[in-house]
Amino acid sequence: MPKGPKLIGDLKVTQVALDQPKGAKGSRLVYVTGLLKNDSEQQRLGVRVELDMLDASGAKVGTATDYRQTIDPRATWQFRAIVTDRRATAAKLVNVKEDE
């Protein structure tokens, strides 16, 4: 059976949340984490997630990105992007891109 075309819609993102690692005593590091599932039969190359960081009022206060070189067919990638603005209280997925 031939593989269909690669569709960006086959890359599905769920469980986006802010996460402060436990055990990082005194650390102020915060990450935005989530899951990206390759819902296709094809390996995906150079996948980047882009997220807007929002403050308590919903205003954009920054962006966060993460990148993965390859995602195998039907595989799930747990992404983790550093949050650089301390005002961020939520994250919203903006874009998923794949290298051509």
Description:
The mean pLDDT is 91. The protein is an all-beta fold and 100 residues long. It contains no helices and 6 strands. The chain has a single domain (10-98), classed as Immunoglobulin-like (Sandwich), CATH 2.60.40.
Q: What's the short story on this structure?
A:
The chain is elongated, with a radius of gyration of 15 Å.
Set out the fold topology.
Layout: E1 11-19, E2 31-38, E3 44-54, E4 60-71, E5 76-82, E6 90-98
Antiparallel strand pairs: 1-2, 2-5, 3-4, 3-6
Give Rg in angstroms. 15 Å
Alpha-carbon distance between the two ends: 24 Å
The count of DSSP E runs of length 2 or more, i.e. the number of strands, is 6
Biggest beta-sheet profile: 3 strands, antiparallel
How large a portion of the residues is in β-strands, by DSSP E?
over 45%
Label this structure with key terms:
100 residues, mainly beta, Immunoglobulin-like, 3-stranded antiparallel β-sheet, 6 strands, elongated
